[in-house]
Amino acid sequence: MLAGANCLRLVDEPGGVTGESWRRAGLLVALAALWIGFHLASDGAFLTPRNLTNLAVQTCVVGLMATGMVLAIAARQIDLSVGSVLGATGMVVAVLQAEVWPREAAWSGPVALVAGLGLGAAIGAWQGWWVAYRGVPSFVVTLAGLLVFRGAAFLVTDGRTVAPLAEGFSRIGGGPGGTLPAWAGWAVAAAGCIAFATWRVRRGASRSQWLGGATVCALGLGAVFLFTTPLREGGPVRGVPYPVVILAVVSLAVGMLAHATRFGRWVFAMGGSPTAAERAGIDTRRVTLGLFALLGLLAALAGSVTVARLEAGTSSMGTLAELSVIAAAVIGGASLRGGSGSVIGALLGALLMQSLENGLVLIGASSAARQIAIGLVLILAVWIDGHFRRESV
Fold first, then answer.
1. Which of 5, 96, 229, 345 is positioned for an S-S bond with 333, CB 3.0–4.6 A?
2. Spatial CB neighbours of 359, under 8 Å, sequence gap ≥ 6
């Protein structure tokens, strides 16, 4: 009975920690300081509409996978293969369009996208089966997957770059015609804020949750304003890039899955106390299988967006992406001990990671220096997480 009570407490408070709002506020302050510092160091090149638009689009690939990774970490699992799955599924999507199906056909791009998403979900389910039903640690399974699917991405075309793609496919990567009209962007942002407020009212949100929601809405409306600002005086009015729209829709869906469904509550319950979750009657094996299938699906979606952005498939796509994804989830508040994490935090972590890389590129830092900086930030984030949790005990 005690184990069941503990599990139900965890289910009722998915990802809930007392300092979560303060953690997000700290992330926003750190992000603002980072932006101002890079703006000054780059002679005013960072905080410009063009660079911030590029930054937003670059964040989408990491953000898509981070929304799923935060759930995996919350359930005391890990997926080291997301970058390789991105590369393998992306190459399949590109090959289907360029070499298998007639790329002139209107259905070529959409069908290739669906095939890639299905392949990603199947890969994730296969890895989840080994973890859930054969008891192999997720670290080992996904480390093997990192090697297997990176090799598969190379073998699909023997390392060749695959292009051109089906006409119009580049739109989902923000290519020509790949933006929502300005009015549609404002309408979607307003509808999202209204839906978020309605959901909070029905759930009886606390003051800190309202503050967090208001912050998210303000950021969303600010982003739409940025995307609809002409890059130069007298220039054309732009729109919200499709990758940003995709990330917003996926984030909303995964956030609802995490905090408004039994599946999400079970994920956090498993991370808080696996033994209590099993004694409470949760089928932890099915939840684990579904969790990895979701991760594979999101990695495949990120791979399709990457292919569309590059307008080609390359075997190096997603290399080391898993490091940025895990770092984004941890920086956003996902504890490696399980039981906590949030989609909003993961998105802020992804934005911080990409801001760091984007800013270092603008000031002329080498690739080695960027890797060192990202590694140090990851260590610092894990240390801060452990420090806060020790203080709260």
1. 345
2. 34, 35, 37, 38, 41, 42, 46
**CATH code for the structural domain at 2-11+35-181+239-392:** 1.10.3470
Q: Judge whether 389 and 335 are in contact, CB under 8 Å.
A: yes
Element (H, E) at 179: strand 179-180
Instruction: Give the 3-state secondary structure of residue 111.
Output: helix
* pTM given for the model: 0.89
Q: Find the DSSP H helices in 228-261.
A: 242-260
Least confident of 34-38, 170-174, 256-260, 356-360: 256-260
Lowest mean pLDDT among 104-113, 324-333, 380-389: 380-389
Measured in Å, how far apart are the chain's first and last C-alpha atoms?
A: 24
Distances (CA, A) of 113 to 305, 309, 348: 10, 14, 27
Show me where the domains of the chain are located: 2-11+35-181+239-392, 182-238
